[in-house]
Specification:
58% of the residues lie in helices and 3% in strands. The chain is mainly α and 603 residues long.
């Protein structure tokens, strides 16, 4: 498992700008003034100067003020000045140049599905032209808005659309925008691109459910209206954008959400009951064709009337939660005998309950949900961070300031200062994964010996153990890669196999992923006989009772690899051995898939 690319704060637009901003002749921010956040008078002066000669000429003076504050340990002031620098970059970059970086980002993230990949490039006009002068002034005068906006912004966010949506929502009522700015940010970051074809799930046809988000204004007005009437289970103005994006990503149209409020009456403390409102259709679960909805329009009312399988129960409950202003997630996962769907929601204690409808007897180890901002799978540690409200913690706020400046120093060609700031970031908050990544990048720039870099990776792995095993696994695998590059192959193999054994207890899904890594390496570097021996060893160590995930990640791929090598007899033997090791029970979903694979492998 590889760590995702670091979502650098500036990556959405700064790569397209000169590395160093040009100073405006004559514009000066005195060093003493930089020790405090910019005063209202200074902000008005900056706005006037920008109106006269453009924001591009102000970028370096504002940046220098931020650095002045940072080096004097005036971190609140440093963040405030830096946010203005960030906005000056946003206001300055041309739409077409920003588009080039955005296209690279969606390709790197693997989310260039047709509806997104075909979006046209905007013109060369600076993005600041999308925002009125009064809204720009409002933004600069509200540092909390800037902090929340930039801490949530990602390279795959289509910035022209994000800014245009924010402007439209601000224009509806500046007074309400101030109270509901987090909601506006969430809508802008989710509604900037059309949703993917697999949303909200693939077990319903597009003819029965239009995969379309509402107009931003419709969602914004509806949630504010319901909040003002006290119909929502949370006060919308008290949730952060990172939570509200799981409210605004509604697949059901507004009329159905209103219907849901009338017909789904479970309170927040027992909202799992919404899942159980849908009668389970065992007749549909007994065949592959029955897994897909065929009951007419996929409305909440139709699902309630006709009943459904687990995916319909999860969809119904998650949409009913969003109707009430409750952040919800729809999960799919693999169990012992097949696949299952359930949902998660933010409960009355502001903790995420991530297992509503996830039954113990199905022996599910983890689930897959999607982030509606990026349309990528949410990783295990991201779910855990959500549950802990990690980004709202004071320790993270302090850590993030250090992280931002570490990134800036790295971009300015000062890896030594970047390393110091990144170290401060992880000292403030050990769970700041971006801070660790910046520290490693700085060390690489400084040409720190590989063994010392491995030491930082071990330190990071320790920081995330045992609560975030996916991050631990990622760092250990990177250590193993580094060890192999140094010729320490035996030690790398020992660490890799030991990690898989440690994960086998509570996180057998990650153990399977680690075993798949070992098998892939064998396929790429060993003769066929040794590959089969490695497969059999993995089957013996990790296969017993492992279920669907093992079948998907290990058995199918290896059997198809053998078949492609003209070894169909060996491929069938590999599947039969897996049937025994996985303890596949007749009549289950996994049994049907094993039989289908064996049929495919017939001569």
């Amino acid at each position: 498992m590889k760590l995702p690319r670091l979502p650098l704060l500036l990556a959405a637009f700064l790569p397209l700008l000169p590395a160093r901003a040009r100073a405006q002749a004559g514009y000066l921010i005195p060093p003493a003034e930089a020790q405090d956040p910019p005063a209202a008078l200074r902000l008005r002066d900056l706005e006037a100067a920008a109106a006269a000669s453009g924001w591009d000429q102000l970028r370096r003076p504002v940046h220098d003020a931020a650095i002045q504050a940072y080096v004097h340990n005036r971190f609140v002031a440093a963040e405030a000045w830096y946010n203005i620098f960030m906005w000056s970059n946003v206001f300055t970059v041309g739409g077409d140049r920003n588009f080039e970086g955005w296209k690279r980002a969606i390709m790197a993230y693997g989310v260039a599905y047709p509806a997104v990949g075909s979006l046209p490039s905007p013109g060369p006009e600076p993005l600041g032209t999308l925002l009125s002068a009064d809204f720009q002034a409002w933004i600069l005068g509200h540092p909390a808005f800037s902090e929340e906006f930039f801490s949530n912004l990602k390279p795959v966010d289509r910035l022209p659309a994000v800014l245009a949506i924010l402007e439209r929502l601000y224009r509806r009522s500046p007074e309400k925008f101030e109270r509901y700015s987090s909601l506006a940010i969430a809508i802008a970051l989710v509604y900037d691109v059309p949703p993917p074809p697999f949303w909200p799930h693939i077990q319903v046809n597009a003819s029965e459910l239009a995969r379309r988000l509402p107009d931003p204004e419709v969602t914004y007005d509806r949630l504010i209206h319901e909040d003002e009437l006290r119909h929502t289970y949370f006060r919308i103005g008290q949730l952060r954008a990172e939570e509200l994006k799981f409210v605004v990503d509604t697949a059901a149209p507004p009329a159905e959400l209103d219907w849901s409020e009338q017909h789904v009456t479970c309170g927040l403390d027992e909202f799992e009951e919404a899942y159980k409102m849908i009668a389970y259709r065992r007749d549909r679960a007994s065949s592959e064709a029955g897994m897909y909805w065929s009951g007419g329009p996929y409305t909440l009312a139709n699902i309630l009337q006709n009943g459904g399988i687990c995916i319909d129960q999860a969809y119904f409950a998650s949409e009913a939660g969003k109707a009430r202003g409750v952040p919800t997630l729809l999960f799919g996962g693999e169990g012992q005998d097949g696949r299952h769907a359930w949902f998660g929601y933010l409960d009355s204690s502001h903790h995420w309950k991530l297992d509503a409808g996830r039954y113990d007897e199905q022996r599910l180890v983890t689930g897959i949900a999607y982030d509606p901002q990026t349309w990528r799978q949410i990783s295990d540690h991201e779910l855990q961070f959500l549950s802990e409200r990690f980004h709202a913690l004071p320790s993270f706020q302090q850590s993030r300031v250090q992280q931002v400046f570490a990134q800036d120093f790295l971009g300015e060609g000062n890896p030594a200062a970047a390393a110091r700031a990144a170290r401060a970031a992880v000292n403030y908050e050990r769970r700041n994964s971006d801070g660790w990544e910046l520290l490693l990048l700085a060390d690489k720039e400084l040409k720190v010996p590989a063994a010392e870099q491995e030491g930082v990776m071990r330190e990071a792995a320790l920081a995330f153990a045992p609560r975030y095993p996916d991050l631990v696994m990622a760092y250990v695998n990177r250590i193993c890669t580094s060890l192999r590059a140094r010729g320490e192959t035996s030690l790398a193999n020992y660490e890799e196999q030991g990690l898989a054994r440690r994960l086998l207890g509570d996180r057998s899904d990650l153990a399977v992923s680690q075993a798949a890594t070992i098998l892939i390496r064998s396929i790429s570097s060993q003769p066929l006989g040794d590959q089969i021996a490695t497969y059999n060893s993995i089957l013996a160590q990790y296969g017993h009772g492992a279920g669907t995930a093992f079948f998907d990640q290990i058995v199918k791929g290896f059997a198809e690899h053998l078949a492609a090598a003209n070894q169909k007899a060996q491929a069938r033997l590999a599947v039969e051995r897996a049937r025994d090791a996985l303890e596949v029970q007749p009549g289950t979903q996994i049994a049907m898939e094993v039989d289908a694979l064996l049929t495919k492998l017939q001569d």
